[in-house]
Write a structure and sequence with these properties.
By secondary structure, the protein is mainly alpha-helical. About 75% of the residues lie in helices and about 0% in strands. Helix 1 runs parallel beside helix 4 and helix 4 packs antiparallel against helix 5.
């Protein structure tokens, strides 16, 4: 229920920007962030954990900390909200509000769209490389072992045959 209301508020922010009602967009954004904070109030341990429209003290926005802590939240909505607030702030020439929300959007986008499978891919490639070296070593050992096998299988028979023939020739 709360998250559906948050989605509706987020859509209202977008609509306000389309209609050039930038102050209303910022007001809707403030309400939207408040609703998200209320929804997640049980897991928020301090004021730095709450989403703020503008925060001069936080080096890292709360939503970035949330995603790093693997808190399930409506990040697509938060991304949209941050982007729309940046647009409204830019139109209203509120440079600090613009800078904060643009930075929050950029940081959250990087975290949200990061490829977390890269480390697994790298370890799989290292394992494949290791397996390749083992296969090459086994192949080289196999080729080297063919030399004595060839000797015993072919030349030994030839030498024995020659030696048997020579022995027969001496007897005759």
């Amino acid at each position: 229920h709360t998250l559906a209301y948050v989605e509706a508020l987020s859509d209202s922010i977008y609509q306000c920007n389309l209609q050039a009602r930038y102050a209303d967009a910022i007001d809707y954004a403030r309400r939207c962030l408040h609703q998200i904070n209320l929804h997640y109030a049980d897991i928020l341990t301090s004021a730095h954990d709450t989403l703020q429209l503008y925060d001069t003290l936080a080096a890292v926005p709360a939503e970035v900390n949330w995603i790093r802590d693997t808190i399930q939240a409506p990040y697509k909505t938060i991304l949209s909200l941050r982007n729309e607030v940046a647009v409204a702030a830019l139109a209203l020439h509120q440079w600090n509000l613009y800078a904060y929300n643009n930075s929050a959007y950029s940081q959250l986008f990087k975290e949200y769209s990061a490829d977390n499978t890269l480390s697994k891919y790298c370890s799989d490639m290292e394992e494949a490389e290791s397996d390749r070296y083992i296969a090459i070593v086994i192949l080289v050992l196999l080729v080297l072992s063919l030399i004595p096998i060839y000797y015993f299988a072919y030349y030994r028979a030839v030498i024995l045959d020659v030696s048997t023939t020579l022995t027969k020739m001496k007897r005759e």
